[in-house]
Amino acid sequence: MTSTIASKSTPIPPGIYCPVISLYKPTARQEVDYDASYKFFSHLIRGGVDGLVLAGTTAEAVLLSAEERKELVKVARRAAIDLGRPQFPIVAGISGQSTNESIKLADDALEAGASFGLLLPPSYWAKAATKDVIVGFYRDVADSTRLPVVIYSVRHLESNNCNKSNLCQFPAVCNGIDMNSDTMSELAHHPNIVGVKLTCGNAGKVTRLTEEYSHEQFAVYAGSSDWLIPCLAGGGVGCVTGIANVFPKCVAQLYALWNQGKTKEARELQGLVAQAEKACKEGIAPTKFGAAHFAGPAAGLTDAKTFWPRKPYAPCGEEKSAWVVQVMQHLENVEQALPDAPSV
């Protein structure tokens, strides 16, 4: 590591973080189902993930009110405490288009029990979001909250089954804005900016940033588990992955195998995870259907409508649902054979 900056006072722990889907009541208004959310949070923690991410892209954050976001953090913290994990990392999405909104979301998340905040760059007026604007935005938010900030780096990802006129998973999350490693390195010097989630899938950013910074100075995570091993091999310390909603034990096992030096077994499981994760790249509805089908029963949640996207968005149709099962089912037996995480 070449940087001499101080370690962060609250580094984000390494590991597998699940960007948890939002669950709704099967009513016309689809109110957030906090009881179902508690069960699902508990299921994921028992499954061995190292942290939960709330109010991110996979959680349909743009469809959640500020109050719903805050309450979900409270419920997640209660689930962790009830499982004997009071310090369990909970990362709350704090992305707003204005600096003021993001600071308010950060304050709400901290009050509700969040450990860290995940923050996208401003992007509504993309041409106006210059490097200076982006750097100023992150510094202003980080200056104004005690919640440690994690950068959320996104660019558009085209899925296997998308064409250019049918943009899928991240159509307007960041409006084409893609921060380079130099910008993130500049932000890494802020004492309250602790790391980055690289949903951009750029392994070069991993190696450049980890050459400069230790995990304690500025942590680097993959934004999905289909390139977890490449990220870890490049010096990264984990990932934030939507497929953990479906197979939390499998992703936790992949991370554990690599850390144990069992590279052959890790590579084999990495391939299986990557094949299944391509369904998550198709969007929120396939991810939620996969979670309902494979994880719902284990979590004690059997009503498929609990996992439907929030209106106006629609659940998977029959053909897409069958495809999701087809590409994910090879992990079902692996998941069921793995034990729960040991109690603390």
From TrEMBL:
Active site, UniProt feature: Y152 (proton donor/acceptor), K197 (schiff-base intermediate with substrate)
Specify which residues bind pyruvate according to the UniProt entry for this protein: T58, V240
Which CDD domains does the entry link to?
DHDPS-like
**Organism domain of life:** Eukaryota
Q: Has UniProt tagged this entry with the keyword Lyase?
A: yes
Instruction: Give one GO molecular function term.
Output: 4-hydroxy-tetrahydrodipicolinate synthase activity
Q: Which residues cross the membrane?
A: none
Q: Name one Pfam family in it.
A: DHDPS
- The keyword Lyase is annotated on this UniProt entry: yes
Keyword annotations for this protein, in alphabetical order, are: Lyase
- Matching InterPro entries, A to Z? Aldolase_TIM (IPR013785), DapA-like (IPR002220)
Q: Which family does it belong to?
A: Belongs to the DapA family.
- Write the protein's name: Dihydrodipicolinate synthase
